[in-house]
Design a protein that fits this description.
Layout lengths: L10 H11 L8 H14 L3 E5 L2 H11 L7 E4 L6 H8 L3 E4 L11 H14 L5 E3 L10 H11 L2 E5 L7 E2 L2 E2 L8 E5 L12 E5 L2 H11 L3 E2 L16 E2 L10 H11 L2 H19 L4 E2 L7 E2 L5 E5 L5 H10 L15 H4 L9 H7 L2 E4 L7 H15 L1
Bound molecules: pyridoxal-5'-phosphate.
Length: about 375
């Protein structure tokens, strides 16, 4: 089976991990700080807070922005469930903004209309989570202007998008958001096995996320109630979690960072090859906006005819092509249907779901593997 995504581990990665395993600190050691520094330098953000997953990073971001019971969080229906679950963890109510059918990102027009209606109904969200679907940045300038106008905070779910650019600047610089979140799960652009990071330019938000990722415990006397009781002393001042990344993971991530730009260049090469080979089939290839340089985490094609979607998908799988579907609209998940969502609520997202197929794409994919995917698709659709 040619998988839809695959990690790449080199001898340098192995050496970096082994060095940590032989060192004094497996976790809470010096490599973690170096990884965080590398991320903030790469993304031109002031702070990077590493955690054990992007899901944890989304949760901490919501907590830092003081999302709570009775508040509302909006995100896209076409995302992994974690982009919505982080709001539920905080007791917030979730709602969705339908997608732009070309980019699969939140549609700025739908967002504008939804904001106008929500302002009238006094049901404005506290937090908006635009998703960088497939690695392509949404129209963050417009989204951020609208959010500022209505006093709404923004967390970018850039789980797909480390190494992407928007208006020639790195995604993660938080020029149009409060916090940006990346994932280092093995199918993503670079990996720490499990892991994630939140970037921000706001030192208060960064400090809060650091506090909450480690039980709500501080060793900083300035944050304590009363005086420190001695060198051993720490205080728990909030209820946090253990969301820490290990130094073993950070070493892997730091080593992978060296190849990040090369990975993305390779993904672009493969994407262009797909574009050229598939353009006259009964499907649409990914639309790229001028403002965005995508990481091409995913290469999603949309079949023109939804009636053959199941058959084409199954035939590809049966013939050794590990296609996938990103994503089942979140509002159609049984857990979210309990909140009253139903079929028809977000028609563009549902239409996308009836036609989308993620084709295999990963940096170590060979020309032969890609040719195999292409010839199978041609045989099914030509
Ligand atoms: C992968 C992913 C997540 C969750 O990432 P983890 O690191 O596995 O927790 C969240 N949002 C999106 C859009 C993702 O693709």
């Amino acid at each position: 089976m040619i998988p839809y995504g695959r990690h790449d581990i080199t001898q340098a990665d192995l050496n970096a991990v082994i060095d940590v395993l032989k060192s004094d600190y497996l976790t809470q050691g010096p490599v973690l700080g170096r990884f965080e520094d590398a991320i903030s330098t790469y993304t031109s953000s002031k702070h990077a807070v590493s955690v054990n997953s992007a899901t944890s990073a989304l949760h901490l971001a919501c907590v830092a922005l003081e999302l709570g019971p009775g508040d509302i969080l909006w995100t896209s229906p076409i995302t992994f469930v974690a982009s919505a679950n982080c709001g539920v963890y905080c007791g917030a109510n979730i709602d969705f903004v339908d997608i732009d059918p070309d980019t699969f990102n939140i549609c700025p027009e739908s967002l504008k209309e939804k904001f106008e209606q929500a302002a009238k109904d006094e049901r404005l969200p506290k937090v908006l989570i635009p998703v960088h679907m497939c690695g392509q940045s949404p129209n963050m300038k417009l989204i951020s202007d609208l959010a500022k106008h209505y006093g709404v905070k923004i967390i970018e779910d850039a789980s797909h998008a480390i190494g992407s650019k928007y208006l020639d600047k790195p995604v993660g610089n938080c020029a149009y958001s409060d916090i940006t979140v990346f994932s280092f799960h093995p199918v993503k652009i670079i990996t720490t096995a499990e892991g994630g990071v939140a970037t921000t330019n706001d030192s208060v938000l960064a400090e809060k996320m650091r506090l909450y990722r480690s039980h709500g415990i501080t060793r900083n006397p300035n944050l304590m109630v009363g005086r420190s009781d001695g060198l051993w002393y720490y205080q728990q001042i909030e209820l946090g979690w253990n969301y820490r990344m290990t130094d073993i993971q950070a070493a892997l991530g730091l080593s992978q960072m060296v190849r990040l730009d090369a990975y993305i260049a390779r993904r672009h090469e493969l994407a262009h090859r797909y574009n050229r080979a598939l353009y006259d089939l009964e499907l649409s290839t990914p639309v790229q906006c001028k403002e965005s340089y995508s990481s091409f985490h995913l290469y999603v094609v949309l079949l023109k005819n939804p009636e053959i979607h199941h058959r084409v998908f199954e035939d590809l799988r049966n013939n050794g092509i590990g296609v996938n579907l990103h994503y089942i609209p979140v509002h159609l998940q049984p857990f979210y249907q309990k909140f009253g969502f139903s079929v028809g609520d977000f028609p563009k997202s549902e239409n996308y779901y009836s036609r989308a197929i993620s084709l295999p794409l990963f940096p170590t994919m060979t020309k032969q593997q890609q040719d195999e995917v292409i010839s199978q698709l041609v045989a099914l659709l030509a």
